[in-house]
Design goal:
This protein is α/β, with parallel strands linked by helices and about 500 residues long. It is built from 17 helices and 19 strands.
């Protein structure tokens, strides 16, 4: 159904695609894989008419096509679910799904009833219940993702591109999505599936095409390759293990954070935990179990009902993130682009943004030489791959953006770090680098709280694991007890504690 041949694209002097190929058959789910920066999203934007190729051809059903803009691609039956949401936050789900192609009655007026019915039909097909009549800004991230998917499905696309569609979904929601994808495949739709979760590739896809550094590496059926071979195709080398070895347990390590009592809501369950110097403490549990809220409550960034916490001997809990920062707590948030970075700013500006006070020389003037020297050291320490500190952060891959946020906290000397979904949307090679960086930090005396929805990540990296259920910690696991089975058992049946 689709052939893309010899695509080349450069942005100024930077060559992004070097003559890449892709062919997708009707009625198949075709994985498009590669590390961040491999050219996958650029290739899909060319397909959808968002940007144009410098060279190459696109054929749909054997006919040469070149789309001047996205609407032409939609008219030809091409739909895409973008990795970065393209929803307008203050419009409803219905209004977003039918934006710029509203259904009208014979008098030319908006037929809101028909649009709502059609939107509900598409969402019912996905097996999810989304409130249709409130602004999408009020929906959860997962619900917003399903609105994006519904928007593409409502186009009756014959070629459907799904760019990281499962990054924000729970395992149950992923099952629903895969069910819908199988139904679409049975009806002859050609699906291009981009994901960094390799286990999903083997579950849902028929064939795989791999790009590396903007070049075509190869295409093969899923049944003819295993995970190790796929990783080698993507990164050009064997990765023996994603996870660095764990150090021996040290129960006498200094407690840097003692949360004696965290109660997120009045009459709700109560949590307690300790964070020790030199460890990775995992926060695990189902989405909505209170992992992120508990971490933010410690920083004064979530209005918890009760917080009793001691940080390096100080028993007064921070009132806000500024106080938490002054007490040595840094946060790598779940959404790095919305909450962790000012993406239009340079690497140096992002690394220095919390540190301008120490660079002041006279009045409002900054010691730019000191700022640059500190930034260059920080980005060397975390191995940011970029031409220099003046590069805008929106030009970096996801993994390098994560490293810039980490460099900021190293520059600010925050010995307690909270990493919320540290490898979401990051390729397998960059994941291994982030894991090694986290272990290097703990070996240097930092203490890390890692919040993650990926059980292999939790079991492979965390020294101890706090399991959450219904807003509170129900178990703390160590050593051989850190298994996916034990985590899920406590996450679904763990006993909650309440204040008498």
């Amino acid at each position: 159904m689709l052939e893309m041949k010899g695509l080349r694209k450069a942005f100024g002097p930077v060559k992004v695609l070097h003559g890449v190929d892709l062919d997708v058959r009707a009625g198949e789910v075709h994985a498009l894989l590669g590390e961040n920066g491999a050219g996958k999203s650029t290739m899909m934007k060319i397909l959808c008419g968002i940007i144009s190729a410098d060279e190459g051809t696109i054929r749909i059903d054997g006919e040469d096509r070149q789309f001047a803009h996205y609407n032409e691609a939609i008219a030809a039956g091409v739909g895409i679910v973008f990795q970065e949401f393209s929803l307008i936050p203050y419009l409803t789900a219905v209004e977003n799904i039918f934006l710029a192609r509203e259904i009208r009655n014979r008098f030319g007026l908006l037929d809101r009833k028909a649009m709502r019915a059609r939107a509900k039909e598409v969402l019912d097909k996905l097996g999810v219940d989304v409130v249709l009549d409130v602004p999408v800004a009020e929906l959860s991230v997962a619900e917003q993702q399903f609105v994006e998917i519904a928007k593409a499905l409502s186009l009756d696309a014959r070629i459907l591109v799904l760019d990281e569609p499962t990054a924000t979904l729970t395992p149950r929601e992923v099952e629903y999505l895969f069910k819908v994808m199988r139904e679409l495949r049975n009806h002859g739709v050609a699906i291009i599936f981009i994901s960094h979760h390799l286990e999903e590739i083997f579950e849902i896809c028929d064939r795989i095409t791999v790009l590396r550094d903007g070049a075509y590496v190869g295409t093969c059926p899923v049944g003819e390759i295993d995970t190790d071979g796929l990783v080698e195709m993507m990164v050009g080398r064997r990765i023996k293990s994603n996870f660095p070895p764990k150090p021996a347990a040290n129960p006498r390590a200094r407690v840097v954070l003692n949360a004696a009592q965290i109660q997120l809501h009045k009459n709700g369950p109560v949590s307690a935990f300790q964070l020790r110097q030199g460890e990775v403490l995992g926060f695990a549990g189902l989405v909505g179990s209170g992992r992120t809220e508990t971490a933010l409550a410690i920083m004064g960034a979530y209005p918890a009902f009760r917080v009793k916490v001691e940080i390096n001997g100080n028993t007064k809990p921070p009132k806000n993130p500024s106080e938490a920062l002054a007490r040595g707590i840094g946060l790598l948030p779940e959404s790095r682009k919305e909450q962790g970075l000012i993406t239009s700013f340079s690497i140096m500006q992002n690394v220095s943004v919390n540190n301008y006070g120490k660079y002041r020389r006279m009045g409002p003037f900054l010691d730019l030489a000191a700022e640059r020297a500190h930034t260059e050291k920080a980005i060397r320490d975390v191995q940011v791959k970029a031409p220099g500190p003046d590069v805008p952060c929106d030009t970096l891959s996801g993994g390098n953006q994560q490293k810039v946020v980490i460099a900021r906290w190293l520059n600010h000397h925050t010995p307690i770090l909270i990493f919320d979904e540290p490898t979401r949307g990051i390729d397998v090679g960059a994941k291994a680098e982030i894991y090694q960086l986290m272990r290097n930090l703990t070996e240097s005396g930092y203490a890390i709280i890692m919040i993650s929805s990926e059980l292999p990540e939790v079991t492979g990296l965390a020294d101890r694991v706090c399991v959450f259920r219904s807003g509170a910690i129900v178990a703390t696991l160590e050593g051989d007890a850190i298994t996916s089975e034990d985590i899920m058992k406590h996450a679904t049946t763990g006993k909650l504690q309440y204040v008498a």
